[in-house]
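Milestone 3.1: sequence recovery, worked example.
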């Protein structure tokens, strides 16, 4: 996968720090104070720390200041109730730049 320059939205701290670089500013979003605190603790001293940040917010109601060109969410199929998935997809659409794509890896059934 080739990533272009822009802003990305990722869950959890490990992915945020691993992907962030001067060309790719990454936002880590979580609803948990504890998760945000831990992510900051683990990553604030990394050399690329100026290339990402962590926000505590509810994904369903959060209003970002700008749209994202890439959104990675690998919790979709396991953490979101089936009756909430349409709202999730609509929310992704609302905060994703037109013509860009969300990534939501799912396990492949046997």
């Amino acid at each position: 996968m080739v990533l272009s320059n822009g802003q990305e939205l990722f869950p959890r701290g490990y992915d945020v720090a691993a992907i962030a670089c001067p060309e790719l500013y990454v936002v880590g979003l979580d609803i948990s104070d504890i998760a945000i605190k831990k992510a900051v603790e683990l990553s604030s001293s990394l050399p690329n720390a100026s290339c990402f940040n962590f926000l505590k917010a509810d994904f369903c109601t959060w209003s970002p200041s700008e749209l994202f060109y890439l959104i990675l969410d690998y919790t979709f199929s396991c953490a979101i109730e089936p009756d909430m998935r349409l709202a999730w997809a609509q929310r992704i659409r609302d905060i994703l730049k037109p013509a860009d794509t969300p990534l939501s890896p799912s396990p492949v059934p046997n």
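Residues 33-43 form the longest helix (11 residues). The first strand starts at residue 6 and ends at 10.
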